[in-house]
Amino acid sequence: MNRKIFKAENIQQAIATIKEELGSDAMILNTRKIKRKPSDPYGKEMFEVEAAVPLPPKDGKTDKANPVEVIQEDIAQIKDMISIAGFGNGMHNMVCNHFESVGVLASLLRAGVSEALASSIIQKASASMDNTADQREKIKSLKKYVMKECLNRIATRDYFCRDNSSGVPHVAAFIGPTGVGKTTTVAKLAAMLTFQRKMKVALISIDNYRVGAFEQLKAYASIMGLLCVPAFSAQDLLCALDRMKSMDMVLIDTAGHSHFDKQRIDEILQLIKTDFRISAHLVLSVTSESIIMQEAAAAFSVFGPDTVIFTKIDETKRCGKILDQISDFKLPVSLIANGQKVPEDLIVPDRQELLKIILGKGSKEIY
Ligand SMILES: Nc1nc2c(ncn2[C@@H]2O[C@H](COP(=O)(O)OP(=O)(O)OP(=O)(O)O)[C@@H](O)[C@H]2O)c(=O)[nH]1
Ligand SMILES: [Mg+2]
């Protein structure tokens, strides 16, 4: 290898000089940012790029990598650059400052992680990197750090398990905006707890708002042979819970309301507060825009939810927004719903499994 170090004000300029001096076979081995000297008022921040051209071996054969692989790597890098090009100036600067991060950054963005979160993760990762390592080593350690950083942001909790210690049933209410899949998730969970975990389960619907809401839950309960009752008032709810005191788990389906409808949300809250044992579980659909999910989470935070459930992950390839949501509202994820089929489309994820869901195809690229 014929190594040489180039200095320039930015990466693009350095690459142009390298191509000119060493030709198009040149490989970049290392990049480093050199901070401006405080003693030099006219000095600028510079980039140092180490590049090399492979020497032709004595036997005439070249030690170049397989040309197909080289082309594949180049195409992947060009694709990554293109996918980042659509983002803001901040992203552009970040790529110039941390050139080796392009691939990982593009994977996070493609997965649907927000620009702000993706760049803050990469920045943290890049700051912790060993600048003396060569390019491949740097990328390897960057990937490792990014995975660790994403995993640190994820908390999961298998909330719906048997707890014999208290002698009273666990009571869990499912809250959230309209149409996110609350009733369907309650039905799936009831089936899982009854048939897989062999728990005694009963259902309550406090959805007295939508016509046919109770019948929807009742239909599922009938198929599974479970007790299911409506409760329209605090008195109804206390009566229902009294009837169900020999159960392991009571699941309460609530009416979905717009997160702007504070009055209706408050009505449900007052009902739920009837019994202090009732835990709340926020249901959000990943098909909603991130900002809507954030607003909904803020509106339903009055319930002090214990866990969050993400539904409809089968309808999007961009589950990265889950990472944004859980980084923001710091709740453990108890369930993931991945389809309309009752009961099978329900996952009780652990942290690694959730990370794979969040990064999608990108998890293969980053690992
Ligand atoms: N693709 C997909 N569809 C789902 C999933 N979960 C629920 N659905 C569908 O979403 C629609 C609404 O589901 P519901 O369970 O009635 O939603 P809800 O939150 O109870 O609705 P309201 O009670 O009206 O607020 C139905 O067509 C479900 O089949 C899921 O994980 N994936
Ligand atoms: Mg419903």
Set out the fold topology.
Layout: E1 2-8, H1 11-22, E2 27-34, E3 46-53, H2 67-85, H3 89-97, H4 102-111, H5 115-127, H6 135-153, E4 170-175, H7 182-196, E5 201-205, H8 213-224, E6 227-230, H9 234-243, E7 249-253, H10 262-272, E8 279-285, H11 290-299, E9 307-311, H12 321-329, E10 333-337, E11 346-347, H13 351-359, H14 362-366
Parallel strand pairs: 4-7, 4-8, 5-6, 5-7, 8-9, 9-10
Antiparallel strand pairs: 1-3, 2-3, 10-11
Helix pairs in contact: 2-4, 4-5, 5-6, 7-8, 11-12
Bound molecules: guanosine-5'-triphosphate (GTP) and magnesium ion.
Commentary on this structure:
The protein is of the alpha/beta class. The protein folds into 3 domains: 58 residues; 90 residues, no CATH class; 180 residues, P-loop containing nucleotide triphosphate hydrolases (Rossmann fold), CATH 3.40.50.300. Helices cover 44% and strands 17% of the residues. It contains 14 helices and 11 strands. The protein has an 8-stranded mixed β-sheet with strand order 6-5-7-4-8-9-10-11, with helices on both faces. Strands 1-3-2 form a 3-stranded antiparallel β-sheet. Strand 8, helix 11 and strand 9 form a beta-alpha-beta unit. Helix 2 crosses helix 4, helix 5 crosses helix 6 and helix 11 runs parallel beside helix 12. The protein is elongated. Magnesium ion binds next to helix 7.
